[in-house]
C-alpha cells in the first residue's frame, strides 16, 4: 500500500465543562474516588440543544482548514460514532450536507472505541485503490445525554465525555506505507454493550437502557489485547519501540494507560494523554488527542506515530504510520 498523509487535523469538545467535583454531588461519591479510579478531573458534556453532528462538523471544519483545502476538495466522508443523534441515518450525511462538500458518499461506522483506527484503515484502502484523492475521517461522540448519573451506574457515568476529532487524509506516493492490524472477538459482545430500548407491558413506553459493563473482563482483555497488538504491529513493520516517536492510545482510563506503558516498556513521556482533561470520548479520543498534540507542536512532520484502540465488541487494533 502506498503511503498516506494526514493533511490536517481538527477537534472540538462539547460546550459544558464538568469537573469530578460536580459529579460527586450527583452520584454520591467523592471526587478523589473518581480521579483515583480513572485519572479524570474534567470532561465536557453537550449543552442544551448541542448535538453530536454539531461537534463533528466543527472538528471537520478545523481539519479541512488545517489541510489548506475546501470542502469541495473532498471525495469521501467517513464518520464514526456509537452515539448518533438518531437511529438512522447516521451523522455522516449531516457532516456532508453541512460542510457543503457536494454529493460525495458518506459512510458511517459503529465500531465503538476502535472506530477511528478501523476508519483510518478503510480510508487508506480507498486512497490506495484510487477511488479517492482525499478522505475526511471524523469520529464524534455525544454520550452524556444517554447516561444515568446515579450511584448504581457510577463505574460508567464517571468515564465519558463528549467531543469530536477529525483528519483529512490524502495519498502520499513517496511516503512510507502505513501498517494496520485489526481484531474482533464477538464472544465478549455482552461484556460491554448497550441493548435496544424496550417497551414495558404496563406503560407501552420505551424505557431507555443503560450500558452494561463487565469491568473485570474489560480491564483484563483491554490491557492484554492492546499490549499484544502493539508488539505484533511492530514485528510486522520490523521496528522496535525506539523507532516510534509517539504512542496515542484510546483514552479509556489513566490506570490502563499506565499499565500499557509498564507492559510494553514504552515510556509515559512519549504517550499522548489527555483523559485527565477531557475524559473518555470513545471513538473520538484518539483523533482529539492527535489534534491537540499536533497543535501543541509535539507531533511533527516526519515522526512515526502508533495509534492503538480497544473497545466494545470486543474490537481492537493499531495503526502505524509516518505523520
Provide the β-strand percentage band. Answer: 15-25%
Q: List low-confidence stretches.
A: none
- Which assembly state applies to the chains in this document? single chain
| Order of the strands making up the biggest sheet | 1-7-6-4-5
Task: Specify the CATH class of the largest domain.
Answer: Alpha Beta
What's the CATH H-level superfamily name of the largest domain? Thiolase/Chalcone synthase
Give the end-to-end Cα distance, rounded to a whole number of Å.
16 Å
Average residue pLDDT: 93
Secondary-structure element series: EEHHEHEHEHEHEEEEEEHEHHHEE
Question: Structural class, please?
Answer: alpha+beta
The overall number of domains is: 2
CATH architecture of the largest domain: 3-Layer(aba) Sandwich
The CATH topology of the largest domain: Peroxisomal Thiolase, Chain A, domain 1
Summarize the biggest pleated sheet: 5 strands, mixed
**CA radius of gyration:** 19 Å
Helix content: 25-40%
Shape: globular
- Beta strand count: 15
User: Number of helix segments?
Assistant: 10
Question: What this model shows, in words?
Answer:
The chain has 323 residues and is an alpha+beta fold. It folds into two domains: 3-172, Peroxisomal Thiolase, Chain A, domain 1 (3-Layer(aba) Sandwich), CATH 3.40.47; 179-322, Peroxisomal Thiolase, Chain A, domain 1 (3-Layer(aba) Sandwich), CATH 3.40.47. The chain contains ten helices and 15 strands. The chain has helices spanning 20-27, 31-38, 52-66, 92-99, 115-129, 154-157, 215-237, 254-264, 275-278, 285-295; strands at residues 3-13, 16-19, 42-45, 76-80, 106-109, 134-141, 163-172, 179-184, 192-193, 198-199, 206-207, 212-213, 246-249, 304-311, 315-322. A five-stranded mixed β-sheet has the order 1-7-6-4-5, sandwiched between helices. The protein has a four-stranded mixed β-sheet with strand order 8-15-14-13, with helices on both faces. The radius of gyration is 19 Å and the shape is globular. It starts with a strand and ends with a strand. The relative contact order is 0.20. The mean pLDDT is 93.
Amino acid at each position: 500500500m502506498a503511503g498516506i498523509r494526514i493533511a490536517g487535523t481538527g477537534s472540538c469538545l462539547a460546550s459544558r465543562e464538568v469537573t469530578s467535583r460536580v459529579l460527586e454531588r450527583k452520584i454520591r461519591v467523592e471526587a478523589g474516588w473518581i480521579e483515583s479510579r480513572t485519572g479524570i478531573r474534567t470532561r465536557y458534556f453537550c449543552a442544551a440543544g448541542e448535538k453530536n453532528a454539531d461537534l463533528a462538523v466543527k472538528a471537520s471544519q478545523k481539519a479541512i482548514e488545517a489541510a489548506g483545502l475546501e470542502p469541495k476538495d473532498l471525495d469521501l466522508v467517513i464518520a464514526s460514532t456509537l452515539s448518533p443523534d438518531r437511529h438512522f441515518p447516521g451523522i455522516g450525511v449531516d457532516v456532508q450536507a453541512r460542510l457543503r462538500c457536494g454529493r460525495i458518499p458518506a459512510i458511517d461506522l459503529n465500531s465503538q472505541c476502535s472506530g477511528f483506527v478501523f476508519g483510518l484503515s478503510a480510508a487508506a484502502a480507498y486512497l490506495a485503490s484510487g477511488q479517492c484523492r482525499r478522505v475526511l475521517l471524523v469520529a464524534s461522540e455525544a454520550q452524556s445525554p444517554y447516561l444515568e448519573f446515579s450511584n448504581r451506574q457510577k463505574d460508567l457515568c464517571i468515564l465519558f465525555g463528549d467531543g469530536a476529532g477529525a483528519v483529512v487524509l490524502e495519498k502520499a506516493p513517496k511516503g512510507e506505507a502505513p501498517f494496520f492490524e485489526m481484531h474482533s472477538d464477538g464472544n465478549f459482545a455482552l461484556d460491554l454493550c448497550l441493548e435496544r430500548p424496550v417497551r414495558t407491558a404496563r406503560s407501552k413506553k420505551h424505557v431507555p437502557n443503560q450500558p452494561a459493563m463487565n469491568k473485570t473482563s474489560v480491564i483484563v482483555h483491554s490491557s492484554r489485547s492492546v499490549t499484544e497488538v502493539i508488539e505484533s504491529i511492530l514485528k510486522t513493520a520490523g521496528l522496535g519501540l525506539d523507532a516510534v516517536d509517539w504512542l496515542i492510545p484510546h483514552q479509556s482510563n489513566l490506570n490502563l494507560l499506565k499499565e500499557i506503558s509498564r507492559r510494553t516498556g514504552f515510556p509515559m513521556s512519549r504517550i499522548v494523554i489527555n483523559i485527565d482533561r477531557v475524559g473518555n470520548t470513545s471513538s473520538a479520543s484518539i483523533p482529539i488527542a492527535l489534534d491537540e498534540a499536533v497543535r501543541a507542536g509535539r507531533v511533527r512532520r516526519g515522526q512515526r506515530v502508533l495509534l492503538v484502540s480497544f473497545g466494545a465488541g470486543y474490537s481492537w487494533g493499531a495503526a502505524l504510520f509516518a505523520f
